[in-house]
Structure formats: structure tokens, C-alpha cells
């Protein structure tokens, strides 16, 4: 992995690690919390974040996108945290083995043909968007003190 990719991975981790911080504020009763009918539950949203980023990274490496993995075998917040940690680990590993040619290669997804660099940026933006929603969920379950939106580099 190039030093440029190292920086990208570390920037991503500054956001991803806050997902752990947010989930640490929830308990088992919150896993199925939905702010409105039809919304993803807190657990579903956290899992959607990590499986989607994994899908994007794997797709960049493969040159085409598959659907994100399905993870429905959870009941507790610890189960959700374990799934998040597993996907953080495997996504970080996958990111570390992306080659320049894969980042420059064009991939068609949702009728958009763009290079891997675009999809990598899109993956991070998607994650940040949903992490913002998760901040709202956590506030709605009664948490008053929430973490900063990113961790500082020395906290990764």
C-alpha cells in the first residue's frame, strides 16, 4: 500500500472508530430502536455502514460491485459491536492491499461509470452520512454527551 493509501486508511479510521464510541453508548434495548416506521433500526444502521464500506472496497479490488454482505444474526448490542469490529478489521486489511491500478480502474455501479478513487471517496462519504444518522439515533435514545465526529490521529 502506498503512503497515500496509508493516509486514506487512517482518515477512514478516524471516522470508523467513532462508530465504536457511539455503539458504546447504546444498550441491548436500543438495538431495535427505530426513530420512525420503516427506518433502519440502530443495529441495522450500524451493520449497514460497515457492510457497505466493505462492499465498496472489495468492489474496487474486484473491478465490479456485488451486494453488501447480509448480517442478521444479532440480538444484543455486543453482537452488533462484534460484527462492526469484524468488518472494520477485514475492511482495513482489504484497503491495505489495494493497488494503484485498481484505484484508477473504472467501475460501473448504479449506472455511473467512475474510477476506484471516486468509489473509495463515495464509500467514506456514505459512511459519514450514516454515522451522522447514528448520532441522531443515539441522541434520541437519551444520550446527552456524544463523542466528536472523528477521533484524533493519536487515538486510532
TrEMBL record:
Record's keyword terms, sorted: Metal-binding
GO molecular function: metal ion binding
Pfam families given in the database record: DinB
Domain of life: Bacteria
InterPro entries, alphabetized: DinB (IPR007837), DinB/YfiT-like (IPR034660)
Coiled coil: none
Amino acids binding a divalent metal cation: 48, 126, 130
Keyword Metal-binding (UniProt): yes
Family: Belongs to the DinB family.
Name of the protein in question: Damage-inducible protein DinB
